Amino acid sequence: MPLVTSKTWLRRAQTEGWAVGAFNVNTMEQAQAIVGAAKIEGAPVILQCSHRALLYLGQGSSLVGLRYMAHIGRVAAEAVDIPVILHLDHGTYAEVLQATALGFTSAMFDGGDLPLDENIGRTRALCEAVHDAGLTFEAELGEVPRMAGEEKPPVGELTDPEQGAHFVEQTGADVLASAIGSVHAVKEKEVELDLGRLAAIRVRVSVPLVLHGSSGVTDHCIRAGIQGGLTKVNVATQLNQAFTEGVRACLAEQPSMVDPRVYLSAARAAVVERVRERIRFFGAAGKAEG
Ligand SMILES: [Zn+2]
């Protein structure tokens, strides 16, 4: 079916106590795997593409990357009969506007590097533009840091609950990414969430909340976080791990094989299994079926 917006699904997940999986795409095969897995599980699903993935897809041009992704997402959604949302993850100011024009149905602006006042001003302006297009807008307050070669995951600035409420009120954001201890690109499930902070945010902020960097968070904390009000859970590193393990296993078994269709099929199948497991874990299985 055509791409849909996420607001209704996130609101429903919030009311019912489950989470919509938001899975990051770097290649066409990953998009196919994510949508294929959601179809098997009967779940609504968010395909999302980050600024860095756009640069990869567009070979240095994020606008070209957005064009590729808009087509990949649309075709992937039309191939199945479950709701698929195409979301821009960690977009720049220009990318949010471009994604909105190109057919994405949801977008996130990452103004985390800006001073708070400027972040609020830019976020509000983009939010209005995205709303004018009838789409969903996600904003971030606080910092979900990125693991980059350190031995231990770094600690970023966590979201202040009062400031979070003020930020949502000032910007009009539909969805809030809050920093509660998770870290991007952690390969082991070792990070614990600040669940007390999540509870304090939840009572002050009424819009759906997003967990970024879930791959490195213990499943115990993710489950408790969903019970505590997280309604969109982003998954990226775990999918890259599954994809690469699929390629490695295939090439180890057939070292002289040179057909990319063979090892990319193995990679795609590995991602399907990982996404299915996550969808079930988030409680989203069967939710697209009523
Ligand atoms: Zn993120």
List the helices and strands and how they pair.
Blueprint (H helix, E strand, L loop, with lengths): L6 H10 L3 E5 L3 H14 L3 E6 H7 L4 H17 L5 E8 L1 H10 L3 E4 L6 H17 L3 E6 L19 H11 L3 E4 L16 H10 L4 E3 L7 H9 L2 E6 L1 H17 L6 H22 L9
Parallel strand pairs: 1-2, 1-8, 2-3, 3-4, 4-5, 5-6, 6-7, 7-8
Helix pairs in contact: 2-4, 2-11, 3-4, 4-5, 5-6, 7-8, 10-11
Bound molecules: zinc ion.
What does this structure look like?
It is a single chain. The chain is built from eleven helices and eight strands. By secondary structure, the chain is an alpha/beta fold. The protein starts with 6 loop residues before the first helix and ends in a 9-residue tail after the last helix. The model has no long low-confidence stretch (mean pLDDT 95). The protein binds zinc ion. Zinc ion binds next to loops. Residues 90, 144, 184, 212-213, 234 line the site of zinc ion.
What would a concise description of this structure say?
The protein is α/β, with parallel strands linked by helices.
